[in-house]
Predict the 3D structure of the following.
Amino acid sequence: MLGDFTCHNPTKLYFGENSLENLSKELGKYGEKVMLVYGGGSIRKNGIYDAVQAELRKAGKQTVELSGVMPNPTIEKVMEGVALARKEAVDFILAVGGGSVCDYCKAVAGSAYCEHDPWEYYFNNFGEMTCRWIPVGCVLTMAGTGSEMDSCSVISKHSENRKKFYYFRNPDFSILNPVYTYTVPKHHTVAGIYDIMSHILEQYLSGTDDNTTDYIAEGLMRSLVVSSRKVLGNPEDYEARSNIMWTATWALNGLLACGKPTDWMVHMLGQAVAAYTDATHGHTLSAVSGAYYRLLIERSEDAAKKFRRLATSVWDIVPAGKTDQEIASEGLARMEDWMRELGLAMDITACGADPSQLEGMADACPINETGYVVLTREDVIDVLRQSL
């Protein structure tokens, strides 16, 4: 490993079928009033809401509720949460849901006492958070984003066709019970699985040194492929669900970025698509991955070599008698076969995009400069066009 790094993650995790039993103990460390935040109401149907409420009562907490957090939370919804948090003077925010709910709660926690317009100050200008922070905890109900153990919050503003991110603070604790993911619909399950894969690849597909982190990433990807196929056959396979949930956390808790420059252009492209279509995050990533990765293989020898390693280490491509580019392309084709097997979106048309939006999407796509190829605006448009 050649890069310098600092590795630290402040989030405490409770993992397993009995993990929720720790919620009341953790809540005892905070003030009396808890804001309970969740999405469309599925937790009321599957029993998770009642189980969480029992823990809140056990901890002796007063609760205020905010529901209706959407899959791509908007800044308008954030401001609704800000108003409620301030009005009720809440001491703690409890997210019960998937990554969107977790992201949303971080944004509310860092914006409630911000003296500026949060969209302009945080998401447009990356201003430093200096105001009071409301502590956050998560009860995770979907695996994919890794939001349960990182500081990032992704928020949309439809009036500007923008989907942007900001690094607030990590949740103090997160509770991960794989059983809670049994009832997640297939469309969202596979989107979460590809989000995990993409998180790993965004970090793995960078740098040229022999890096211990890359060996960890390869093991996580192999595990994810095996478990994803098991879950397709049996959505209530606890072992497979637990492996996917744990892999999701490892994929974005900072470990895989250690000593790596990282890339993140698939996420920039996918979020630009979602800014116009509001499509599910994991599907926008899968829709743009193929075209972007083919560009890397064609343009960069370093990328071709890394894709060659990915092809042989994860996708079991036999390298004998083939060039690096041939091996890399064969590995990418096998990965795309797996993506189709899962039922992921393979083009942005399936995400609701049309050719008239490409220029605007390019404007909404930040350009990162740490990957194997630094894209131009024309490159972005070409990747999006190839992804239609």
Q: What stands out?
A: The mean pLDDT is 97.
